[in-house]
Design goal:
Distance between the termini: 12 Å
Strand content: under 5%
Helix content: 55-70%
Structural class: mainly alpha
Radius of gyration: 16 Å
Number of strands: 0
Number of domains: 1
Order of helices and strands: HHH
Length: about 80
C-alpha cells in the first residue's frame, strides 16, 4: 500500500520515468562532453569540487546490487 501511495504522490509512472531517464541521459552526455573537452576533469587539470559533486550525484546510478541503499530496485 505504501508503494502505491508513493507512486501516486511522486508521479512515478511510465511517462514520468521516461522523462526522468531522458533528463539524466542529457546531463550525463553533457558531463561526458565536458570531460572530453577538458581532459580528465570537469574543470581545469586537477580534481575539484565539481568532479566530487558530479560523482556524488551520479553514485546512485552506478551502484552495484550489493550496495545497502542503492543496490536493489525498491519500486
Amino acid at each position: 500500500m505504501v508503494k502505491s501511495v508513493f507512486r501516486t504522490k511522486l508521479k512515478i509512472n511510465a511517462v514520468e520515468v521516461a522523462r526522468a531517464e531522458n533528463s539524466i541521459d542529457e546531463a550525463v552526455t553533457w558531463l561526458e562532453n565536458r570531460i572530453a573537452k577538458n581532459g580528465q576533469y570537469l574543470v581545469g587539470d586537477q580534481l575539484t569540487v565539481a568532479d566530487i559533486t558530479a560523482a556524488s550525484l551520479l553514485a546512485p546510478l552506478a551502484c552495484p546490487v550489493e550496495h545497502p541503499v542503492y543496490g536493489a530496485e525498491s519500486f
